[in-house]
Amino acid sequence: MNVMELTGTYTYRSFLDLPDPVDDFNKLRFAQATLRLAAEPDGAVNGELILSDPGEEPLIIMDMAGRVSASSRLSFTLSGRGRPPIADFHYEYDGMVLRRWETGVDQRMVLAGTVLRAEPHGSAPAGRTASFLAVRGDGA
């Protein structure tokens, strides 16, 4: 895969890593957002993670910067830093592009990985981790 293929707009969803079954899937929800990424030929990646309610103005935005590398699968690391009013937000991301099945039907590019709250903000302590999936949208 070419590193430039990471460029696109994704629906981002992160989940708390709770080991037991839950009666309400929303109990696993950590965040849902729009993730926009632009990869450069040298492997640099920049973008935005935009958290908002559907159809509403963005509530908060984090600027994303990192690197992508091409191996058997694309893998990437990103650092997200909040813009005011959430300038104290700092999260780290480590992920990869999931396999595209040769016989898959309607399969989309999916990013998967883990996220770490690197610095505390408000009453949220540093160190919280979650898993994420990001599904690339149409025209991305």
What does this structure look like?
The two termini are 16 Å apart. The chain has 140 residues and is mainly β. It has no helices and 8 strands. It has strands spanning 8-16, 29-39, 44-51, 60-70, 74-82, 90-97, 110-117, 129-136. An 8-stranded antiparallel beta barrel has the order 1-2-3-4-5-6-7-8.
Give start-end ranges of low-pLDDT stretches: none
In whole angstroms, how far apart are the ends?
Answer: 16 Å
Q: In the CATH hierarchy, what is the superfamily? A: Avidin-like
| Helix segment tally | 0
- What's the order of the H and E elements? EEEEEEEE
Task: Evaluate the radius of gyration.
Answer: 15 Å
Strand order of the largest sheet: 1-2-3-4-5-6-7-8
Largest sheet: 8 strands, antiparallel, barrel
CATH hierarchy: architecture: Beta Barrel
What secondary-structure arrangement, pairings included, does this model have?
Layout: E1 8-16, E2 29-39, E3 44-51, E4 60-70, E5 74-82, E6 90-97, E7 110-117, E8 129-136
Antiparallel strand pairs: 1-2, 1-8, 2-3, 3-4, 4-5, 5-6, 6-7, 7-8
Structure described in brief:
The protein has 140 residues and is an all-beta fold. The protein is built from no helices and 8 strands. The chain has a single domain (3-136), classed as Avidin-like (Lipocalin), CATH 2.40.128.30.
